[in-house]
Amino acid sequence: MRILEWQTLSATERAQALERPAQRDAAATGHAAQRIIEAVRRDGDAAVLAFTAQFDHAELESLEVTPQEFAAAERALDGAQVAAIERAIESVRRFHAAQGAPALRVETAPGVLCERISVPIRAVGLYVPAGTAPLPSTAIMLAVPAAIAGCPLRVMCTPPDRAGAADAAVLVAARRAGTLRVFKAGGAQAIAAMAYGTASIPKVDKIFGPGNAFVTAAKMLVAQDGLGAAVDLPAGPSEVMVIADDTARADFVASDLLAQAEHSPDAQSLLVTTSRALADAVASQIPLQAASLSRSAILSQSLLHVRLLVVDTLETAFGVANDYAPEHLLLEIREPRRWLPRVGAAGAVFLGHWSPESMGDYCSGPNHTLPTYGYAKAHSGLGLEDFQKRITVQELSREGLQNLGPTAQVLAGLEGLDAHAAAVTIRLGAIGGAAAIHGAAR
Fold this sequence. Notes:
The protein is an alpha/beta fold and about 450 residues long. It folds into 3 domains: about 1-25 and about 235-365, Nitrogenase molybdenum iron protein domain (Rossmann fold); about 25-100 and about 120-235, Nitrogenase molybdenum iron protein domain (Rossmann fold, 3-Layer(aba) Sandwich), CATH 3.40.50.1980; about 395-440, Single alpha-helices involved in coiled-coils or other helix-helix interfaces. The protein has 17 helices and 14 strands. The protein has helices at about 10-15, 25-45, 45-55, 65-75, 80-95, 135-150, 170-175, 185-195, 215-225, 250-260, 275-290, 295-300, 315-325, 335-340, 355-360, 400-415, 420-440, and strands at about 1-5, 105-110, 110-120, 125, 155-160, 180-185, 205-210, 230, 240-245, 270-275, 305-310, 330, 350, 390-395. It has a 6-stranded parallel sheet with strand order 1-11-10-9-12-13, sandwiched between helices. Strands 6-5-4-7-8 form a 5-stranded parallel sheet, with helices on both faces. α2 packs across α9 (about 215-225) and α8 (about 185-195) runs parallel beside α9 (about 215-225). The longest helix is centred in the last third of the chain and has 24 residues, at about 420-440.
């Protein structure tokens, strides 16, 4: 493990210490994703089936999961597994249901009523990866808010295994969380199918969910096309930063760093601590715990990206965290809630020694779909509002237009947009004419 004394590092060395693992060649990945998208747009289901055979090594006759496959998935899980899925759905549903905002209604001037209402996105596509590991937790995190939002069409894509079956736990989670249409498709081809539609897979308006470099590239490409689909948020390899002081337990911290490191070879885990003794103890704990873990091939690569940074104060630690903007930020320190206002950039925060990031991944309630690779400086994790649109409504009475209309006339004049002004002027004239007629009649 690399233990670095932050105060002794130059500005360049500090930047290097916080540098994320290099992502796959973006240009080559983008070109490959573009070719896949073009093939799916041209050949539809046939292209998706061909890419599924090429990349997932699964020969499929059709893409949609059948009722029989859903039933087989239910039988494949035992009672404890189903109960865990249901318990997680319950927690996630409770947290997201509380996020619904009431309609806004404000009279901005006499006779000028302005409102904002929320409506569900008509059709959403939910992508659940199943590359190095199937992710029923992602099925829950995407399907639950989509159902609460009331999106009329909710479809899910997830890669099949070599036998041509979708993961049983993903199917059970999807159905119980409110998604009834699931398709066995993964990678950039699944994103393209949902963005543009095929004979089997409906076109959607917005795509959600994490994925590998090709999935991410495909999402960015379809989002740039007016005929494609919007996407949820930028995402890259998973990451965690732990801020710890001398009250932290080394075995706890090491387990938190390893929990993220096991995601993928390019995942990153960082410790920022005021205690050199803790850094030394964590450096010893990581290989001890890693030796008993199953994903050793991934850990052998991702542990190369671990950094243990020793800082002089917690103030410095939070400065480092805000510069890095981690996907997950764990505060294993005294009085963590007192320090929460110092957090300015993070996807999700976990307070105290008894709040492992794993709980957020699975069942505590908040969404685990979070911005990575520094995007937490400007982006938030998924919430109910991401599955909705906000629409504003304006209603002016005659008196309201008389009151505020002259302001619009002046501003239209400043911009040289006389048709804008005329739309107000004609109405004000009609109001004046009507008033004159009414006065004469009296």
